[in-house]
Amino acid sequence: MAKGTLKDEVKTFIVQSLACFDTPSVVVEAVRKEFGATITRQSVEGYDPTKRAGSNLAEKWRLLFEETRKTFLEDTATIAISHRAVRLRALQRMAEKAENAGNMVLASSLLKQAAEEVGNAYTNRRELTGKDGKDLPVPVSPVTIFQLPDNGRS
User: In whole angstroms, what is the distance from residue 94 CA to residue 110 CA?
Assistant: First the structure.
């Protein structure tokens, strides 16, 4: 199907999908399932202004792409897997399945990953100050002064 024969609804779907970093192959399949339209990967690339094929994209679609991409990058809260609780539930389901299937190596690996998730192993947060922003406590090492023996040389 050529660009000009697609309805605006389909074009909007394509542009927004590409702005959310979906590959052209994924978009082609999604358009086929959602709208029943058959399109090529090359025609989909024509709706991506970051690609050479989309360099002549109409301003309307370019603005939609930029706005969608900006919103997508700023709003990760709408992506379920970005939340720790969702990841832990998924890991729990996988670990239970692996254990029921007798795959103890996989179950152990998943349990380790869940423990790391809970222990903030997968975050970029680093505590550089003490509690409530105060200075970190300086460890005080005990200094022991020994009395040297006289050895008869007073």
Answer: 7
147 Cβ contact partners less than 8 Å away, ≥ 6 residues apart: none
> 22: helix, coil or strand?
coil
Average pLDDT (18-41) is 93
Number of helical (H) and strand (E) elements in the chain, helices listed first: 6, 0
End-to-end Cα, the chain, rounded Å = 107
Could you report the per-residue pLDDT of 85-137, keeping only the tens digit for each? 888 999 999 999 999 999 999 999 999 999 888 886 655 666 567 777 777 77
Is residue 30 within 8 A of residue 22, CB to CB? The reply is: yes
Q: Is pTM beyond 0.90 here?
A: no
Q: Is the model's pLDDT at 37 over the cut of 50?
A: yes
134 phi-psi bin (left φ>0, alpha ψ -120 to 50, beta other): beta
**Phi-psi bin for 142: left (phi > 0), alpha (psi -120 to 50), beta?**
beta
